[in-house]
From TrEMBL:
SMART domains assigned to the protein according to its UniProt record, in alphabetical order: LRRNT
Gene: Lrrc52
Organism whose genome encodes this protein: Probosciger aterrimus
UniProt signal peptide: 1-23
InterPro entries in the record: KCNMA1_auxiliary, Leu-rich_rpt, LRR_dom_sf, LRRNT
Keyword vocabulary terms for this entry: Cell membrane, Disulfide bond, Ion channel, Ion transport, Leucine-rich repeat, Membrane, Repeat, Signal, Transmembrane, Transmembrane helix, Transport
Recorded topology in the membrane: Single-pass membrane protein
Name assigned to this protein: LRC52 protein
Length: 299
């Protein structure tokens, strides 16, 4: 240190070098590290990287070959708020994987091999705001209460996941939801799907299309199209809803006619039997009364 009390340039260079060396030591191999951020994008990683700094807030593992997220290693990153795992080989079982990262706000699991989303998958992520689980049209299933605990969820993307049905309560009970990606799925627009289509047309949710990842639309869009039946595939949402209402409320199939015929026959038969029993009872009653009157006259 100089007589004036200021550190000499050599000391500054030494301290700076020590800081850079420390950062390199704490940074996983093949990854780049900045302040509270670890970026391992496109490094052909086969496993979850080791030696991630415990104070990491943002972890990017996009475009690798990671097939498993270890819950224990993740739990060490208690301050993690941003996790990007898109374009990996993550499997179908992620139950309780995120139990130790309760502060997570952003989670991207797009383009993996996830097949089913259960309640235990995201139940611990109480602070989650953005969740992206879009895929490559592989058939997926989302349980009714899969997002029951994610009440802060604002942006949900389930586009291109091969979904054919989604229970209305799955998304209707998310009070902060504003953006919902549903496009490019294999929706089966039958009568069971009518409630969901009605909710879509009446809600204030935005339904972005393929530009979901880049920007939010200024106006509400309905880019959801039916895959089956073919008669509804090309219709716009408003016409689709009207047509589905008509089909469900007025159209009867063969089994419906059979049921109505059987129900009518049963009602007719039951009415006939009831009338016959009532008549028999009335006759027996009359006979009994008349016999009583004859006995009184003889006395």
């Amino acid at each position: 240190m100089s007589p004036s009390g200021r550190p000499r340039p050599l000391s500054l260079m030494f301290l700076l070098g020590m800081g850079m060396t420390s950062e390199r030591i704490n940074c996983p191999r093949s990854c780049s590290c900045q302040y509270l951020e670890v970026n391992c994008t496109g490094q052909q990683l086969q496993e979850f990287p080791e030696a991630i700094p415990l104070d990491t807030r943002q972890l990017i593992l996009a475009a690798n070959n990671v097939s498993y997220l270890p819950a224990v290693e993740l739990s060490f990153l208690a301050d993690l708020v941003y996790l990007d795992c898109k374009k990996n080989l993550l499997g179908h079982d992620l139950d309780f994987t995120f139990i130790g990262v309760a502060k997570l706000v952003y989670l991207d699991l797009s383009f993996n091999s996830l097949t089913q989303k259960k309640k235990n998958t995201f139940s611990q992520l109480l602070s989650l705001v953005v969740l992206k689980i879009s895929d490559k049209k592989k058939k997926k299933a989302i349980e009714k209460d899969a997002f029951a605990n994610n009440t802060w969820l604002r942006h949900l993307d389930v586009s291109r996941t091969g979904l054919t049905f989604l229970d209305t309560s799955t998304v209707q009970d998310l009070p902060n939801l504003r953006f919902l990606g549903l496009s490019d799925n294999l929706w089966h627009c039958n009568c069971s799907f009518l409630d969901f289509i009605t909710w879509m047309t009446e809600s204030n949710i935005h339904f972005p299309g393929k530009s979901l990842a880049s920007a939010f639309p200024k106006k509400k869009k309905n880019n959801v199209t039916c895959y089956t039946p073919e008669s509804l595939r090309a219709l716009k949402m408003k016409k689709k809803k009207t047509q589905l209402h008509f089909n469900c409320l007025t159209q009867l199939y063969t089994q419906d006619y059979i049921f109505l015929c059987l129900a009518g026959f049963c009602i007719f038969f039951a009415g006939t039997v009831a009338a016959w029993l009532a008549g028999v009872c009335a006759v027996i009653y009359e006979v009994h009364i008349s016999k009583g009157e004859e006995g009184e006259e003889e006395d």
